[in-house]
Every structure is written in structure tokens, then in C-alpha cells.
Amino acid sequence: MRRLVDRVYGLSTTALPLVAVVGIVVPLVLGLTNLAIMGLYFAVPMIAAPALVRAIGDERGSSTTAGRRIPWVDWRVWSVTFHVLLAGLVVLLSATEVRPFLFYAGVAVAYLLCFLLITTSRPTRGRHAIGLYHLVVLAALVIFSVTLNYDFFVGHGDLMTHIAMATSILETGELSSLLPEYEAFQLWHVYTAVSTQLFGDWIPVHTTMYLLSGGVFAAAVGLMYGLARRVYPNETASLLSCLVLISFPLYLFYGMYSIPRSVTSILFLGLVLALVDRPTGNMRILTVLLVAAIVVYHPASIPFVLAILLLFAALEFSIASPIRAADNYVLSVGVLVTATYWLYNAEFIVERLVDTMVASFLGSTPGSGQSGDVLAAPWAQVANFVPYAFALLLVLVGFLFWHRRLATSGEADAMADVAESSVDFRSSRRVPLFTSLGLLTVALIPLAFPGPTLLLDSLAGINISRFGHYSIMFIALLGGFGLYELFDRGGVAVFLALLVLTSGLGFTAVSNEVTASDNPVVERPFYTFYLTDNEVQSFEAVDAGYDGEIGADRLSCRYLTELQGSSCSVVDAGGEGDLFAGYDAVLIREGELADRPLQFSEYVEKESIDESELADRNRVYDSNEVALYG
Q: Measured between alpha carbons, how far is 311 from 326 in angstroms, rounded to an integer?
């Protein structure tokens, strides 16, 4: 295996384009045109990355001390511009009901300004703190522009259950028993309830949850910087890794999606940081605490975490790494803590949590929020995958450049070459660590990026997309190195191209269907990830005035049953005969239906609903956005 690693660069530059071409040609030959179109977002980066590495090759002239072609710029120039832009974006959010495309363009400029601040500011003692501050503020802006801008953000729907449980704890002072499946992990709900009490009655529970989650994900940029600095000793590359992190749509979305599973990804980032640090006694204790926190916050997440750590350990063993980050200690701690917690909560874990885990692997829960057929609109899907294509390109470029260094200079020289100091890294654990983390990242690509995972979810009913939830830091790590290598090796032309790439990455990261369901640039059948104040008030009025069974769309039913305690069923759109036959009352979100299909048991467009069927019923409630037919 070690010899194979030494030949990775040569093999990869040949294999990647070949696999990309085969991945497009074979579906075309089989008549699966839509599948071939979907594969483009994977194929283009796989072809472009080796070409870029060969084209730029040994060039140096953008950032090296000798012959630097990009001038230094006082960081205050970019900072002042950034803050003026930030103020303008906040005003724009206040003046518009739905985030306009102009907001996305402004955010793209903010990403560009952060890139310029990182790459053109003179190295000073506090440079990294300045860069991190701007990245944290930018991440917070993007996350809170959704969760605090709209009335009731619900994400994929599960968030309503967690809000209901936190509300129950706040009102009763006891752990919630609203949903048995969630009784085993209520630490996040307790944290939210206590924080709501500290804030006072002027902040509702769901807003507190948004603030906590968004704050945690914004602050985690600092953890990402610490991880990157310990893996390779370069401040600029580490800051660029943080920039890639907050450009990844899943990271931004889970910062909005304030559920226990979201928090565990940050805890895992902290765990990886502890593992790559020196294995002191304090770090060993911290490792135990972080593993325990992951298990307690969301016990169903630990199998995915352990699977990634096992793969990491196998890769370190295969390349004969002298010091291993994923050693027997962390694996043993993970298994023991998990087994202990599961046994301690046997009533919940054995009877309910195992069922949840089985459903997670063998069938998406009703809250997946994904369209039934991901191949129905392939061009729209590819357009929404553009930010992932950018990230994949940077990951592959970083991977190839690192192994090019190994192939031409050897490990010690490769690490010393990227270092910003004259420290001798010949005995450093960073050299094999970066190699093994790079291999781990590439191995996780099929699990971390949404193309293959969506197809498996849809076609085979196997949900492996959870791995992407815990792979984001590895993508950012290698992607940031790839971005740095392009900047460091290229001249002025490459630098100008990177300005376009960075702004494009920022624009697509915040305007795709994952992070911008309110107003995506490219739409496809999908529900809006938030409820308006009118809709929330309507649900409360319907609950107060009607006691019978209600048929409604999935989000409406989740709100009515979990937050109001009403009796509601999701309308079965797959049966024969009248759509609403068999329901005593039918609730229609007409405001949503005017722009989007409603998600009953499947998505139903407005044109597919028989108006005469509703006309035969009494319209007993109408708020312009929500109507109840009796």
C-alpha cells in the first residue's frame, strides 16, 4: 500500500479523467440520458483538476517572496469595504420580504473580499485573527439571513419536533415525552430551554434555538482553523480552508437546521482537532469528553462517526504512519462510551433508537424533504450542485498537488515547502497525517457529495447521506489546500481566475435550493423551508376552532400535531378517486401552492388539484394564505 501511495499522483492524473468519461458515456449508451446529465457535476471537476495541476505545475509567482506579482494591500481597505457591504445587506434584508438575488450577489462580493483579505494582507501577528473575524461574521450573516429573517424556519421538518420538546421542557421543567424516539437525546432541548429562560420571555423558544445553532456554527470556523494549522503549517492555507468550509452548502444549512444532529458535526470537528494534536493526557481526557458529548447529544450519529474513524485508522495503518491520530484508544473509547450509554438507556435505545438507526440506513424518514425522483429535472439538479462541483474541484486539486509534491520532493520536503517558516518537519507527525487525511477525504467523496447519495436514497432506499454531514471538515481541509496551491503557484492570470471562482463559489453556495429554498436561482419541485407568520397564526386558529381529523400537507401536519396537538393526516396523493375523499376537513396552504407544489404523500401541483372537489366543501376558514375546507 505504501508503494501505491507513492504512485498516487501518476495514477490519479490518468484515472480521474478516464473514470469521468466512462461515467458519462456508459449511461448515454444505456439510454439513461438524465443520469449522464447528473454526472456532469462530478465529471467536469474530475477532468479539470488534473489539467489544472499539469498546466500550473511548477510555476510560482503569485505569493512567493521572490518575484511576487500580487501586490500587498492594507487589510483595512478590504475590512472597511466588507463592513459597508455588510450594512447594506442588512438593510436590504429589512426592506424585502424574501431575499432577492441582489442579496446573493452581495454575499458573493463578501466572499471575494474575504479571499482578498486573506491572500493580499501582509503577514502580521494578528492577521489570522482578523481573517477569522471576517469569516465568522460572514457565516453568521448567511445563516441568520434565513433563520432570523423569516417567521418560522422548519428546514426538513424535524426541527418542529425539537422545538416542541424544548417548549415542553421549558413549560413543565421535566424532560419531554412527546416523541419516544427522541427521549434518549434531550441535552440540546434542555440547553435551549435553559437559554430561553436566561434570555427572558422576549425571545421565543425557536428563535433561541436558531441563535444557539447559528452561533455554534459561526464560532466553529475557529476550530476549523485550528485543525488546518495542526495538519499543515501555513496560515494562508488554513484561512482558505475556513473560507471553503463556510462555502459548503451543507455546512450553512446545518447551521440553520437547529437540531441535535447538527451540533454533533461540530463536536466531531472538535474531536478530530483533539486527535491530530499531540496525544497528551489532557487531550486523551478531552477525547473521552467529546465522544461522550456526541453520544449524548445524538446517539444515532455515533455509528457514522465511528465508521469514518475506522476508515481513517485503516488508511493510517496501510501507509505505515509512525504516529496515528485514529488509534486504538479513540476507537475503544467510542465503542465503550456508546455501549455504556445505550445500555444505561436500554428502555429507549433497544426499543426505539435501534429502530431509528435502521430507518436511517434502510429508508429515509418522512422528513427527508427530497423529491421522489432526483432524475426528473436533471439540469435543474446540476445547476443546484454547482457549489459542490467547485468544492470537488478544489479537493481534487489539493489532493493532486500534495501527491505531486510527494512524488517529486519526498514527504519532508513537501511539508517544508508549504510551511511559512524554516522549521524542520522531518520528524513531524503532520507529513503522514496530511497524506492519510487526504486519502480519507477522497475515499469519502462518494458519500459526502449529494449526487451519488441522492441516487441511492431514491433508487435503493438507502440513506448514506449522513456521512456527508460528518465529512465537511475534511472537504474544507483539502479544498483549502487546493485553493492555496492555485494561488501560490499561479501568476496574475490565475489570481484573476480565482477571484471569479471565489465569488462564484460564494454566490452558488448561498443561492442553491439547500440554503435558499425561499428564493433559489434555479427552482425544482420543493417546498419552502419556512412558515410565514400568517400560516403559523392560521394553524393556531384552526387548532382552536376545529377538533376533528384534518387532511393537509406534510409540513402543516407536523406543525399541527407536534406543536398544537391536533389530529392531522398527510393527504394520500397516490390513491385512485378524489384526492381529498375520506378526510373530514382539508387544510390547504394556498399561499405556498401559488408558487410551489404542496408535499402530500407526493408533490402535487396546483393544476393537479380538482377545484370542484374543494368547491363541494364549505370554506370554514380563510386567512388569504391558509384555507380550511369542512
A: 9
What pTM did the predictor assign? 0.91
pLDDT in tens, 211-225: 999 999 999 999 999
**Alpha helices for 350-465 (secondary structure H):** 354-362, 378-384, 386-409, 411-418, 430-448, 450-459
Let me know: does 143 contact 252? Beta carbons within 8 Å. yes
Give percent of the chain above pLDDT 90: 55
| Residue 534: CB atoms within 10 Å | 15
Could you tell me which of 122, 84, 88 has the C-alpha nearest to residue 103? 88
For residue 619, what are the β-bridge partners?
629
Opening angle at CA 307, ends 277 and 237, nearest 5: 40
Count how many residues are written for the chain: 630
568 forms beta bridges with 550
pLDDT tens, position by position, 350-397: 565 555 555 555 444 444 444 445 566 788 888 889 999 999 999 999
Angstrom distance (rounded) from CA 289 to CA 273: 13
Residues 483, 489, 494, 495: what is their CA dihedral angle, to the nearest 10 degrees? Answer: 70
List, as one string, the DSSP characters of 505-574. Answer: HHHHHHHSTTT-TTS-SS--S---SEE-HHHHHHHHHHHHH--S-EEE-HHHHHHHHHTS---EEE---S
Per the CB < 8 A criterion, the answer to whether 522 and 384 are in contact is yes
The per-residue DSSP string of 556-624 comes to HHHHHHHTS---EEE---SSSS-TTTT-SEEEEEHHHHTTS-EESSSEE-GGGS-HHHHHTS-EEEE-S
Q: Which residue has the higher pLDDT, 47 or 58?
A: 47
Which of 80-94, 216-230, 559-573 is predicted least confidently? 559-573
Q: Give 55-68 as a DSSP string.
A: HHTT---SSSSTT-
C-alpha cell at 455: 441516487
Q: What does pLDDT average to over the chain?
A: 86
